[in-house]
Amino acid sequence: MNAKIALAAALAALALAGCAKKEEAVEATQEAAADAAAAATEAADAAGQAVDAAGDAAAAAGDAAAAAGDAAVDAAGAAVDAAAAPVDAAAAPVDPAAAPAPAAN
Question: What whole-number distance in Å separates Cα of residue 32 and Cα of residue 85?
């Protein structure tokens, strides 16, 4: 009878040890899942920051393009004005009083 009790106690001890190992595995799995979730959150935050930076860069590029377009329009206007100045001067009416007197023969 003592042998049966000892055998039952040994089986119970083995069963408890197996449960303890399973609990350790479950705890380790839960910790690994929590670590993976934290890493995923950090990666998502970094991706969000990258998206924000890309948006800022795109906005800055748009502003630079608009400024370049404005500068090109201003330069073209100045070139037109500069080209028109000689034409305007040539088309101006001549003042007869300002014309030189004809040479005497």
Answer: 79
Cα separation values, 30 from 18, 20, 33, 40, 44, Å: 18, 15, 5, 15, 21
Element counts in the chain: helices (H) and strands (E): 1, 0
Confidence at residue 95, expressed as pLDDT on a 0 to 100 scale? 66
- CA-to-CA distance for 105 and 3, rounded, in angstroms? 158
Whether pTM exceeds 0.90: no
